[in-house]
Amino acid sequence: MENAKIIDATNASMGRLASTVAKRLLKGEKIIIINAERAIITGNPNTTKQKYKERRARGTPQHGPFFPTKANAILRRAIRGMLPYKQATGRTAFRNLRVQVGSEGFEMPTKIKSRYMTVQELSSGMR
């Protein structure tokens, strides 16, 4: 992707990251997110795991709804949920997004005061 903005998801709250990325995608920017597995989901880890397991168990394997298990796909799905992906503008914006697991880059040292878990922990607990 030429002229793409690179965003490091390390220690970034997944919901806040998803909403800001969705707004930028709708403006027409191309975005690459690296270190998707290091994004965090705040809250009680046990409740979060249970919520995602219930989403996975919903429906049938043949007819959906299909919910991802990989870290990059979980973050991508969160961003898709904040886009009007059933309309042409949302589909076009979603095509301008790339999400990668792991990558060399700088790490932002931030302290998180609440309970949290990373997307990697969530994706490994769902298998």
Description of the structure:
The chain has a three-stranded parallel β-sheet with strand order 1-2-4. A two-stranded antiparallel ribbon has the order 3-5. The radius of gyration is 15 Å and the shape is globular. Helix 1 links the parallel strand 1 (5-8) and strand 2 (31-34). It has a single domain (5-125), classed as Ribosomal Protein L13p, Chain: A, CATH 3.90.1180.10. It is of the alpha/beta class and 127 residues long. It has five helices and five strands, in the order E-H-E-E-H-H-H-E-E-H. Helix 1 crosses helix 3 (71-80) and helix 3 (71-80) packs across helix 5 (119-125).
Write the layout of secondary structure elements.
Layout (H helix, E strand, L loop, with lengths): L4 E4 L5 H13 L4 E4 L5 E3 L2 H13 L13 H10 L7 H8 L1 E3 L16 E3 H7 L2
Helix pairs in contact: 1-3, 3-5
Structural class: alpha/beta
- Discrete helix count: 5
Give the CATH H-level superfamily: Ribosomal protein L13
Q: What does the radius of gyration come to?
A: 15 Å
- Domain count: the total is 1
The helicity comes to 40-55%
Stated plainly, the CATH topology is called Ribosomal Protein L13p, Chain: A
Mean pLDDT: 89
Considering the chains and any ligands shown, give keywords for the structure.
single chain; 127 residues; alpha/beta; Ribosomal Protein L13p, Chain: A; three-stranded parallel sheet; two-stranded antiparallel ribbon; 5 strands; globular
